[in-house]
Amino acid sequence: MTVAVAGLVLAAAACAEPGDLAVTQRTLVIGVDLPFQGAAGDTSESVYKAVELYLEQTPPGPYPVAIKRYDDSTAAKGSWDDATCVRNAQDHVANVDEVAVLGTANSGCSKLEAPILNQDPRGPMLMVSHSNTNPGLTKPWEQGEPGKYFPTGLRSYARVITTDDYQGAAAAQFAARDLKVRRCAVLNDNQTYGQGVARAFADEAARQGIAVVTNQAWDARATNYVALFQAVRAADADCVYAGGIYDNNGGQLVKDKVEVLGANTGPVPLIVPDGFFGFRDFQLLPAAEGAYLTFGGQGLDQLKAAGGVATRLLADYKSRYGAEPASAYALYGVQALQVILAAVARSDGTRRGVRDQVFSGTGVTVPAAEAVLGKDVHIDPATGDVNVRDLSVLRMTDGTERFVKAWPLP
């Protein structure tokens, strides 16, 4: 479904791109690239609905703007898919009216799409993610990062969420200082995001005096993880950190953790990152009760309590759809949209022009009075990272992700 917002059009022939209609006759398109199938489907639908609703309510800018839905998941896989992400990136480039991409949800998918969008002959094409947390997309992390995502030498990827080098480290600090654990098993789902956040946790755990008694991947295709947790028990771990996404058989992993090591309210707590955040299946899973989560932002309750744009948008969302969004990612999706719209409004209506507004000069700022996060939101033109760094600790309580505390970040 595509939703257009009427607006005044700048009558400037210079805004036309070779091979395109003049901007005066075009509606500029923002692709919304998310996994709409599998366990992440509810969260992705709520992001799309919130973006759609916000766009309907936004006063007209200099160009008419529409959104277009792209699914980067497959029913067979039940999550984002490598080949689908590549095909989506090619489709973004092929759509001559498209000027930016909102997404993707998963860091691994963005790492496949970003270089293709960066080499767009009419671009580079701007990409702004609401939920990618792997550091390597914007800063040195693994070999060749982040340069390999920008073959043209010009950056074109940005995000509005806190990265895993902060999130993983904060989880380890919370484990040491608040939970008083001393021996932790660190697991990852063997994907880009999970490996990155688990690495950050393990590195900080060592600095906090926590012994990492095992550090290994779980096989998302396994039928159970009983043997894995029996080994964790034999290592005398007093905490489990599972870095990854719930889509990768996270439900079975959590159930087997509780079966072997006991409830999360017991002597061996489970800590998970935001790859488990906002999944209804996880919220409803009895074995998830008592698990701690970290989220590289503010939760719905925090954003709503702050008043302003978020409060109004959440009220309108509930009025239209009968319930609040599945997670705070819906509002972070709107924040990513606000960054894109600010760039579009200041641009000449071309892909290159939209990208340049974010990555040249002083970059783009959405003022606190307008920003859904309730703070001045600025994208650093040198990196693509956002100035706002929030980290929330939550706990699964009676099927709900309850806010525990905000964790201070440097």
Structure description:
It is a single chain. This protein is an alpha/beta fold. It folds into two domains: 3-162 and 302-378, 3-Layer(aba) Sandwich (Rossmann fold); 164-295 and 391-406, Response regulator (Rossmann fold, 3-Layer(aba) Sandwich). It has helices at residues 41-57, 82-94, 107-118, 164-177, 192-207, 226-234, 250-261, 280-284, 300-305, 309-321, 329-346, 351-359, and strands at residues 3-5, 28-34, 65-71, 73-74, 79-80, 98-103, 126-129, 157-159, 183-188, 211-217, 239-243, 270-272, 292-295, 365-366, 377-378, 392-397, 400-406. α1 (41-57) packs across α11 (329-346), α4 crosses α5 (192-207) and α6 crosses α7 (250-261). Residues 1-24 have low confidence and may be disordered. This is Leucine-binding protein domain-containing protein. Belongs to the leucine-binding protein family. Residues 29-368 form the Leucine-binding protein domain.
How large is the share of residues in beta strands? 15-25%
The named CATH superfamily of the largest domain: Response regulator
Shape descriptor: globular
Question: Structural class, judged by helices and strands?
Answer: alpha/beta
- The total number of structural domains is 2
Keywords: Signal
InterPro entries: Leu-bd (IPR028081), Peripla_BP_I (IPR028082)
Protein name: Leucine-binding protein domain-containing protein
Domain Leucine-binding protein: 29-368
